[in-house]
C-alpha cells in the first residue's frame, strides 16, 4: 500500500484547512476536533498561530512552529483524533 501524504495546506475560515494529498485528491478538513491538549492550546486561542500551519515535506504532514503536528493518515482516512479514541477505550473498561 502506497503512503499518501500531505502536499499542501491552505488555512480557511475558523479551524478549517484545504489539504492536497500526494495522490492528487484534496478536501477541506475541520481541524477543531484535533486541537486537543496543551500543545494545541496556542493554536486554539490565537488564530494567527493556527493560520501559520505549513507542510513539513520530510514528514508529509501539517505542522506548526510550536512543534504540533497531526498524523497525515488520520487526516487522509478521516479517522478520529487520538484523544477521542483513548476516551472511547476508557469508557469501555
Task: Name some characteristics of this structure.
three-stranded antiparallel sheet; NE0471 N-terminal domain-like; alpha+beta; 28% helix; globular
Can you describe what's shown?
By secondary structure, this protein is α+β, with helices and mostly antiparallel strands. The chain has a single domain (6-92), classed as NE0471-like N-terminal domain (NE0471 N-terminal domain-like), CATH 3.30.2020. It is built from 4 helices and 6 strands; from the N terminus they run βββααβββαα. The strands form 2 sheets. It has a 3-stranded antiparallel beta sheet. A 3-stranded antiparallel beta sheet has the order 4-5-6. β4 (54-56) and β5 form a beta hairpin. The model has no long low-confidence stretch (mean pLDDT 89).
* Termini separation: 33 Å
Low-pLDDT runs of 5+ residues are none
Rg for CA atoms: 13 Å
SSE-based structural type: alpha+beta
Largest sheet: 3 strands, antiparallel
Count up the helices.
Answer: 4
CATH class descriptor: Alpha Beta
Give a brief description.
Helices cover 28% and strands 27% of the residues.
Detail the topology: elements first, then pairings.
Layout: E1 6-11, E2 16-21, E3 26-30, H1 41-45, H2 47-51, E4 54-56, E5 61-63, E6 69-70, H3 72-76, H4 82-92
Antiparallel strand pairs: 1-2, 2-3, 4-5, 5-6
